[in-house]
Design goal:
This protein is of the alpha+beta class and 144 residues long. It is 21% helix and 12% strand.
């Protein structure tokens, strides 16, 4: 909201000084910033990234990088890079180069808890990885 000219401050308990889960929104006039960047959907981005890994091609995802607030933005670094892809990730962009066809490496374990929406995409990669299969662990997943 700060970007739109509204300063929101989290309330504190006056007696203890402890932060409360209360955020009063002041009455004010919103302003439109000249530029406002909206992140791409990191979960949907895992599909072309997986195809890139399987086919040995290159894919650039704009507006998803290491500064993303979305858990699935970690998919490239935590899943694709360990199985053999080259990943270059800036704060706002992710570039993946897949290995030669048939050269995806398997891992013993990938904890999918922080990137639960990418679980199915990683399952497809596990099916085509060479050697011992990837073991995916959906601990704490919000999805059945």
């Amino acid at each position: 909201m700060r970007t739109f000219g509204i300063e929101v401050v989290r309330e504190r308990d006056p007696a203890t000084g402890r932060l409360l889960d209360m955020y009063p929104i002041p009455q004010a006039v919103y302003r439109n910033p000249q530029d406002y960047n909206i992140e791409s959907d990191a979960s949907s981005a895992t599909y072309p990234l997986a195809i890139t890994a399987i086919t040995g091609s290159t894919c650039i995802i704009a507006n998803i990088g290491s500064a993303s607030l979305q858990g699935d933005a970690r998919f490239a670094k935590e899943v694709l890079e360990p199985i053999g892809c080259t990943v270059i990730q800036t704060a706002t962009e992710t570039t993946v180069q897949g290995p030669s066809i048939g050269q995806l490496k398997a891992l013993g374990l990938i904890d999918m808890e922080p990137i639960t929406d990418a679980f199915h995409t990683a399952s497809v990669l596990a099916a085509v990885a060479a050697g011992q299969r990837i073991r995916l662990q959906p601990t704490g997943s919000a999805h059945p």
